[in-house]
Write a structure and sequence with these properties.
Length: about 110
């Protein structure tokens, strides 16, 4: 009788361990899927922000701020530079704007045209 009780206890213990393991694995899988979906949504959001190239010679402040890395201050600086100096001759001329260096220009260049 003791042996049967002992075997039943072992089987119940194993069943409990496997149940907890399965629950933990399911929870981790759900968390991984949620993280992947959040990352995907963020990437799509950034991509959706600029769907066509923006002309730096004609764009208003609102359009310029849609470019990742260009906030309201940089947008105004671009417009002020354009008013003071005329149209940009190339996208590379944006490096003349304070706060836009070669690294930022490389990141945003694909979103711009003249």
């Amino acid at each position: 009788m003791k042996r049967a009780s002992f075997l039943i206890m072992i089987m119940l213990s194993l069943a409990l361990v496997f149940s907890v393991s399965a629950f933990a694995a399911t929870k981790m899988e759900t968390k991984a899927k949620t993280t992947a979906m959040t990352s995907s949504k963020a990437a799509k959001s950034t991509m959706a922000k600029v769907t066509k190239k923006i002309n730096i010679n004609t764009a208003d402040s609102e359009s310029l701020t849609k470019i990742p890395g260009i906030g309201p201050k940089k947008a105004e600086a671009i417009i002020n530079y354009r008013k003071a100096n005329g149209k940009f001759k190339s996208v590379d001329d944006l490096t003349k704007i304070k706060g836009i260096g070669p690294k930022i220009l490389e990141k945003i260049k694909m979103n711009l045209t003249i």
